Amino acid sequence: MENIIGAIIGLAIGFAILLVLVFIFKWLWNITMPEVFGLKELTLWQALRVLILASILFGGHRVVTTEAPALDTDIQEMSQR
To answer: Judging by beta carbons within 10 Å of its beta carbon (0-12, 13-18, 19+), is residue 79 exposed, middle or buried?
Structure first.
């Protein structure tokens, strides 16, 4: 039962953070882009879609492996070359 409550709280916090980020993006867009480039202002849903598209196009999709070499060994190998 505690795990379910923790998951619900985690989802609520994640949703709140996403909502705050969307509002910040929308605000920044609406004070900058119409003035500089003559673009239209964004609605909340348009801002969310633009952020999702930017995430798909420009990253945020890292594959994590447990066999990744340590940073120290990479630096040592590079310095020996």
So the answer is: exposed
